[in-house]
Design brief:
The structure holds 2 protein chains of 2 kinds. By secondary structure, chain A is of the alpha+beta class. Chain A contains 1 helix and 8 strands. Chain B has a 3-stranded antiparallel sheet, covered by helices on one side. Classes of the chains: A alpha+beta, B alpha+beta. The interface between A and B is medium-sized, with 21 and 18 residues.
């Protein structure tokens, strides 16, 4: 019977050492790739939220203030981190009916629990845009409203210690912000 | 026929892979890693490009909203129909960003 000679202990130790070094080098490169891709993903997600904001908000904010029947409510009410938007732009015949009955006629926007939330009529606040740390509205130059959003990443970035945030300011022109769009009395 | 080269090498060479084989495999690994790195570099470059486009877009958006609120004195009057109310046109431009300039803002009233 033939007796095969195996590796010696020294050969095995050296082989294991070289393998370990190679595996460590390989996995450190792989983990670096994972960190970069994860960070890039977080940043893209953060920006996608802000990039969506002006399109969503302009649909609700820009018609604010139409009050053809001269009812007792203000078109825009701004408080710290909160805006109330009222606009009588809908009714049974397709014309303003003096009531803020449709879901998009009376809205409140505010920021809480890292989300920008919206409330319609007497409903409850629902999340609209996630990962918004700060929401500020400035109505000093009416009918131009300034909205500042501070978006943050879903979780802190790997390796980088700070939670990178992105602040953006949008202006919205309130095209209906006047007491009456029409000179005649609707009654 | 159909013999695996690697198996053949192992059969003929009981000492494992030669230095040349290991070097070639390392070369392949390095090339693959570099290709991956290149991909990430491209992704980051596109990300920063998207960010810079976004900043210009916001600037344009804000300028157009400002124009709607406070009409420019250099508006061009467009009389589409003879008896109708005219339209007022302003061309928005951003200095140094020719590719993002040339947007037209049309207003129906002064």
């Amino acid at each position: 019977m033939q007796k095969n000679k195996g590796f010696s202990l020294v050969e095995m130790m050296i082989a294991l050492l070289i393998s370990t070094i190679l595996f460590l080098a390989f996995f450190s490169i792989v983990s670096q790739f994972q960190i970069w891709s994860s960070n890039l993903n977080l940043l893209m997600e953060r920006d996608a939220n802000v990039w969506l904001a002006p399109l969503l908000l302009s649909r609700w904010i820009t018609p604010a203030g139409n009050n053809r029947w001269n009812q007792n409510w203000s078109g825009v009410a701004v408080q710290t981190g909160r805006i109330e938007i009222n606009s009588d732009i809908h009714g049974p015949q397709g014309f303003p009916d003096s009531e803020l009955s449709a879901s998009f006629e009376a809205l409140v926007l505010r920021c809480s629990k890292s989300n920008l939330r919206v409330k319609s009529g007497s409903g409850s606040f629902q999340p609209l845009i996630k990962n918004i740390a700060d929401f500020e509205v400035d109505s000093e130059n009416m009918p131009l409203i300034s909205v500042r959003l501070k978006a943050v990443t879903d979780r802190p970035l790997f390796v980088l210690t700070e939670n990178l945030s992105e602040s953006t300011e949008f202006l919205f022109f309130l095209r209906n912000y006047r007491l009456n769009l029409f000179s005649e009395d609707p009654r | 026929m159909g013999t695996n080269r690697l198996t053949q090498l192992r059969e003929t060479s009981p000492n494992g892979f030669s230095l040349v084989e290991v070097m070639v495999s390392f070369l392949f690994l390095t090339v693959a890693s570099l290709a991956l790195l290149q991909g990430f570099e491209l992704a980051f470059r596109h990300y920063s490009l998207a960010q810079s486009h976004w900043k210009v877009t916001v600037e344009l958006w804000n300028r157009i909203e400002q124009l709607r609120a406070n009409p420019s004195t250099q508006e061009e009057v467009l009389q589409i129909f003879p008896a109708a109310r005219p339209l007022y046109r302003t061309v928005v431009s951003i200095p140094g960003r020719a590719e993002h300039s040339g947007w037209e803002v049309l207003r129906a009233e002064k």
